Amino acid sequence: MGMVGPIRVTFACSMMFFFLLGICRGSNIGVCYGRNGDDLPTPDKAVQLIQNHNIKHVRIYDSNIQVIKAFANTGIELMVGVPNSDLLPFSQFQTNTDSWLKNNILPYYPATKITHITVGAEVTEAPANVSAMVVPALTNVLASLRKAGLHKRIKLSTTHSLGVLSRSFPPSAGAFASKHASFLKPLLEFLAENRSPFMVDVYPYYAYRDSSTNVSLDYALFESSSEVIDPNTGLLYTNMLDAQIDAINFALMGLNFKTINVMVTETGWPSKGSPKETAATPDNAQTYNTNLIRHVINNTGTPGKPGVGIDVYIFSLFNENRKPGLDSERNWGMFFPDQTSVYSLDFTGKGVVDVSTGANLTSANGTWCIASANASDADLKNALAWACGSGNVDCSAIQPSQPCYQPDNPISHASFAFNSYYQQHGATANACSFGGVGVRTDQDPSYDNCLYMTTGNKAASATTTNGTASHSKAPSSSSVQRVSVQASSHLLTLLALFFGMYFIKGTI
């Protein structure tokens, strides 16, 4: 017991340092553009699709000239890759990286806004032991960039799977596998010296699929109404992605590389799988990626590094029919090869639109969500406050002088807000719960100039959202109040970080 205080104080100081380092960093959402298919659109058409959906950050897995040229003058930030098959020549001779940069990068930069180069991908999982080649290859590519004057403009790193860890739960016990020590030590030194990110591919889907008895689906989908507590730190986790990222953060901290930020270079959820992959559905894929986008752009960080921005890339742009393995491997795409959407997704995090058909005059499943006539005014007001606040619903239409303000009563206002939330979350039964005060109807509740939102068509009276939510599951009446308590708790935690007092929370 005598050691608890000093340990907590040390932890607090470290976490405050983390927070101060990253407080001004914004978070970005990107998309992985893989091309392992024989029916995919041309790069020009793919880039047009990317632009149409306001995607600003893209990762490709090689340095294909036609693809790089397609991104020219778009303003899209591009991450290009050096595949594992090129690690040997890149690590052996500087002239090889000089030639590659001269032929594949320099002719198209800066018209194509290349911001990162990944040198190798998940090398610890590669069949052949190529990890020893990574740092020499990185060093040579860096030298080539320095000759071109681009070493400060283009960041270099390599990607990892979570298999690089020997332990990931609880997050504070995160540690790198000792068998990778000879590879990781010089790599982390390179990343720290060059202020490059630690890139990791993180998939809560696999954690749930392979251990559904220990991991709840809601926890994997950012839909959990309860927390998992790290017993060593007292930190509360409401989703698996944060826990997995913090396992990496703590592993880095354990090796005294506190200044290296984590970048998630792949995450996502498949829309279809083999018979035993029951969680691979369009609804779950939509839920995961919608909640992921909102979580990232809110800049909440993780419990271990609150407020620290983190860039995340969704895998993937298209279903890729040539990928081997289970059916899920070929169904991670947000779009089919014909460029229609697999499910509805909005990359701004402000709502869901049907990206394949544009405007749609009927609600998803032909239903809307309204307030129950049997609900009390108090319950309706609580649920309405949640929907317009943490629920991320644009409630401007029910303000005075706006189209849906009249009739001015809780049931009318709540109905409009409930339906907006319901449509934004795929028109599922769970999205119309609101603690039992929401009910579904097949009759369009729109009236006069008050148009109720549908999945594919934002109502004229509801075109924007306030963008403040990090939680998306419809609450019970009691959990509406709990959101305010959590917000206060998070504010106190951040204040405590500044004063080095985080140990207080750990001892409560």
From TrEMBL:
It is a lipid-anchor; GPI-anchor. It comes from the Eukaryota. InterPro entries: GH, Glyco_hydro_17, Glyco_hydro_17_plant, X8. Its EC number is 3.2.1.39. Pfam families: Glyco_hydro_17, X8. Gene3D superfamilies: 1.20.58.1040, Glycosidases. It catalyses: Hydrolysis of (1->3)-beta-D-glucosidic linkages in (1->3)-beta-D-glucans. Residues 367-452 form the X8 domain. SMART domains: X8. Keywords: Cell membrane, Disulfide bond, Glycoprotein, Glycosidase, GPI-anchor, Hydrolase, Lipoprotein, Membrane, Plant defense, Signal. It is an enzyme of class 3 (hydrolase). This is glucan endo-1,3-beta-D-glucosidase. It comes from Cuscuta campestris.
